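Journal club prep — side note

Before the paper discussion, L.F. wants everyone to see what a predicted structure for a comparable chain looks like in token form. Sequence:
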Amino acid sequence: MHRPISDQSGGGKGGKGGRGSSRQGRSFEAPIGGFPKQVANAPGGNAEGAAGGDGAPKQRKFKERKKGFTLLELLIVIGIIVIVASLVLAVSSSVVRASEERATRNTLEVLNMAAEEYERTVDRRITFRSGPVTGGIVQDPVGNATNGLRYDIDSAPAAPPAGTGVTAWTALANPYNAVSAGLPGYSNLPFRRTAMLIGMMTDSPACAAIMQKLPESIFRGIKPNANTAAFSTVRHCIDAWDTPIIAVFPGREATAAEVSANNPSIVDPDGTVKCDSEWGNSTSQGGMQVSCKDRRILFISAGNDSRFTVQSGSVYTPSNDNLYSYQP
């Protein structure tokens, strides 16, 4: 039976003089800080139990999973990135292409406006002297005082525009001095004719004011040769892909006999004769295989592929991505 601790006779420290007193009257002094508390045998109940002391259940230890991606997760993320990147590239490429086409169409429109302004200024059509065309169309006669004919642009200009300081086309770099000229199957003649037209319009104050709407970078001087950094004053007008734009000229007005013959191989619907600039041999005469409409000059860009025509055997057809000042 537990005997209670009591502070009776001779209590406290005075109990020392009461040794002869009864056992029941003994008193004990509590240790400093008090008696230790009993703790239930529960996980984490005290330091001893937490340390796995006698009677205390041990805590279960779990191995922590390392943070990171599995191979499958990485492959999925990489696949998504590739798909998004391809979509962005496709969209950006389409946007750039559309921007280049808009810029080139604007250049073609300004050139068309300048040509029409020139004709209003001189109160007549710009005239073109054609070479012979397969189908029975003979070469236009040379203009003189007798026949009263006058041509602004010749089919095969003998020399660059006057005042440029260039004495011969052969002194200029391609595509003005040799057949093909680095562009698929094309004569140098379309480029010479266009250079003559641009020079003629530039000399007209009314046309020059219109052409100033274009950036100066659109008009490029032509290098005398590939080995010099200097440019001549012969200029061409380039598209967004740095290819010279060329002009196609309508032929002369058909005679009454030619109109009455009603031969579509000779006379176009606008009443002009098919000329070499339109339908001449592609490699030797630079025919673009298109007809002008309403007796208007047609300006053509070779488009993104820098090809004016596509060759199939001996047949040339306009490239599908060509851009026009109006639809031929």
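L.F.'s comment for the group: Confidence is low (pLDDT under 50) at residues 6-22, 47-51. Keep this in mind when we get to the figures.
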